[in-house]
Design goal:
5 helices, two-stranded parallel sheet
Length: 200
């Protein structure tokens, strides 16, 4: 009996509490298509072209390093295969030196590519950070101008009326306030750890 009374009392308290709490004002929701904003803004398109050029440069360098390494690896394998079976476990000194040089070259190539890839990822992150920071300053002004109290990404909604879409407002403000971004890596203290920027 006592347990039932306590549960009943808690239930009554939970129901009665909202009646004494201050009511929230009605929300005025606006939506923005961030995918369209980041695809169409002037700075975004310019930055994307620069990033694609950097990606192409990375791929070209990757191929330039890989081709001679593959050729040398095949030549070493052929040289080892040409040895008498008894010597393959302990090849001549010249061949050992050749193998060591190849391994050093391969390690240096891997290190260079890792650094280039890290630089590219950092540059992508820096571009997205600049755009995101500017959008954060634009949202409040657009909301105030349109009388909105809540702003959500259109992709998170199931459906919405065209009358509450403020994408054009946000896009116009972004083009005006951020005509270009720096397509360079993040400062050292802000370097990302293997992250891919959103929407890229």
């Amino acid at each position: 009996m006592t347990k039932k009374f306590v549960l009943a009392a808690l239930s009554l308290t939970a129901v009665a509490a909202p009646a004494s709490a201050q009511r929230l004002p009605a929300a005025v929701v606006a939506v923005v298509d961030l995918q369209r904003v980041t695809a169409e803004c002037t700075a975004c398109k310019s930055a994307l072209a620069a990033l694609q050029a950097q990606e192409t440069s990375f791929q070209n360098r990757q191929q330039a390093l890989a081709t001679p390494l593959q050729t040398e690896e095949q030549a070493i394998q052929a040289a080892i295969a040409a040895l008498p079976a008894a010597q393959r476990a302990n090849p001549p000194a010249a061949l050992k030196t050749r193998v060591e040089k190849y391994q050093q070259s391969r390690a240096q190539a891997a290190q260079e590519l890792q650094q280039l890839q890290g630089r590219l990822q950092s540059t992508e992150a820096n571009v997205n950070l600049q755009i995101a920071n500017k959008l954060d300053t634009i949202y409040p002004g657009v909301m105030t101008a349109r009388g909105a109290t809540v702003l959500v990404d259109k992709r998170t909604t199931l459906a919405s009326s065209g009358g509450i879409d403020v994408t054009n407002d946000v896009l116009a403000q972004l083009n005006s306030q951020l005509p270009a971004v720096s397509v360079t890596p993040l400062p050292q203290q802000q370097q990302p750890t293997q992250q891919r920027p959103q929407g890229r």
